[in-house]
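#structure-requests
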Amino acid sequence: MIIKYFTDNDLYKFTLMNAVIKLYPESIVKYKFFDRNNTIFPDGFDIKLKEEINKMANIKMTDEEENFIRNKCYYLPSPFIDFLKGYRYDPSEVTVSLENGKLNLEIEGYWYRTVLWEVPLL
């Protein structure tokens, strides 16, 4: 398992998520990976990546992470931190395929839910 901790992410994404929940709770978004280097990925890379994505469904904020966020990110409201405590990644929001060595990766769903995928996937 590559991503093991809920806080293996970016503080900006957590603060953005908080804002999106308040301002755009019904917004649906779609992100698409764009490989500027034109990388040729090996056969089976998409399968291994999807396996890692599926494992992320089991990641949840630990009590230690919650205490850290409450103490260090005092500007985040308690109801939002409670929301994070219950948040689970939903692998159905991510589509992965490989065509002629080119990786196709898309994330789609409610913005407030999908915003946390960007950092661990990219």
